[in-house]
Amino acid sequence: MSSVVNEKVNHLDISWNDPALLNPLPNKEQILDYFSGRSNPFYDRTCNNETIKMQRLSLAHLENMVGVEYILLHEQEPILYVIRKQRRHSPNQVTIIADYYVIAGTVYQAPDLASVCNSRLVSS
Predict the structure, then answer these.
(1) 0.85 cut: is pTM over it?
(2) Residues 6+ positions from 101 with CB-CB distance below 8 Å
(3) Where do the structural domains in the chain lie, given as residue ranges?
(4) Residue 6: pLDDT above 90?
């Protein structure tokens, strides 16, 4: 459990985009490549996605690996995508680390429940 807590870095106050890659906006097939941009502070270069990219394998191979990975959780083309960072323990067991949403090419970290509750308590 402590390793998951250490991975939860609060990036709620920042956003990222790469204007060079935004014309045209990335589609469903391109969004994970866009998210893996070199300057994206949300992306972990040691993830399994990088391994399969270097080996030129499909994303389906992620299910058979153990470690941190990114998946496309939801899309509403052409403007909204939700990407999940998770730690895979086995083909059927994952621990969610963070969710990110991409709106018109800008990436934001989605707040977790504790952040939302704290914000509501402070504002009331």
Answers:
(1) no
(2) 80, 81, 82, 83, 107, 108, 110
(3) 17-123
(4) no
